[in-house]
C-alpha cells in the first residue's frame, strides 16, 4: 500500500518524500524546476481554473470547495486511473502544492480522495 503525504513545494525536499508529485495547475512562483526535484508534474488532476479562482484560498469557502473539487476528481476518470497506476507500486508519494494555507488546500482533498479509491 502506498503511503501518501502532502507538503508545500517551498519546503526542503527529502529522500523520505519518495515519489514527488506537483499537483498544482500552475507552476509555483519562485521555484526553479531544478530546485523542485519533481518526479512528475500532474496538473491534470488539479482543480479546474474556474474552481481555483472561485476558491481563492478563502477558508470560508472550504466546505463548498472540497465538495466541488471532489466532484471534479470523480469526473477525471482517466487522469485518476493513470495517476493511481503510476503510484501503485511506490512505498511513499508526496503530493506537492504551492498554497500558503496548510489546512485549506486542494492537496488535502486529493489525498483523501485517493485514499478512498
TrEMBL record:
Superkingdom as given in the UniProt entry: Bacteria
Record-linked InterPro entries: YeaO-like
Coiled-coil residue spans: 66-93
**Key words of the record:** Coiled coil
Name of the protein described by the UniProt record: Uroporphyrin-III C-methyltransferase
Amino acid at each position: 500500500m502506498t503511503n501518501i503525504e502532502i507538503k508545500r513545494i517551498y519546503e526542503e525536499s527529502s529522500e523520505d518524500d519518495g515519489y514527488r508529485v506537483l499537483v498544482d495547475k500552475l507552476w509555483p512562483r519562485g521555484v526553479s524546476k531544478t530546485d523542485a526535484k519533481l518526479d512528475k508534474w500532474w496538473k491534470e488532476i488539479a482543480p479546474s481554473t474556474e474552481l481555483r479562482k472561485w476558491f481563492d484560498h478563502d477558508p470560508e469557502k472550504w466546505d463548498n470547495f472540497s465538495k466541488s473539487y471532489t466532484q471534479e476528481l470523480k469526473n477525471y476518470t482517466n487522469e485518476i486511473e493513470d495517476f493511481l497506476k503510476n503510484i501503485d507500486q511506490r512505498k511513499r508519494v508526496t503530493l506537492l502544492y504551492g498554497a500558503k494555507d496548510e489546512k485549506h488546500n486542494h492537496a488535502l482533498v486529493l489525498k483523501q480522495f485517493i485514499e478512498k479509491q
